Automatic annotation (TrEMBL):
Signal sequence range: none
Name the record gives this protein: Large ribosomal subunit protein bL33
Pfam families: Ribosomal_L33
Organism lineage: Bacteria, Bacillati, Actinomycetota, Actinomycetes, Kitasatosporales
Keywords on record: Ribonucleoprotein, Ribosomal protein
Keyword hit for Ribosomal protein: yes
Length: 54
């Protein structure tokens, strides 16, 4: 039960507007704010910023 509370599953959505998303886990203790990562978007064929959805 502690696993789900400490490291929840989050969806990262592309800011390029292509609808591409990644699913990952994050640590609430280390990253209490929304996660922002620069990852590869296969539809846009380039690295773009992905932001956490809630």
């Amino acid at each position: 039960m502690a696993r789900n509370e400490l490291r929840p599953i989050v969806r990262l959505r592309s800011t390029a507007g292509t609808g591409t998303s990644y699913v990952t886990r994050k640590s609430r203790r280390n990253d209490p704010d929304r996660m922002v990562l620069r990852k590869y978007d296969p539809v846009a064929r380039q690295h773009v910023v992905f932001r956490e959805e809630r």
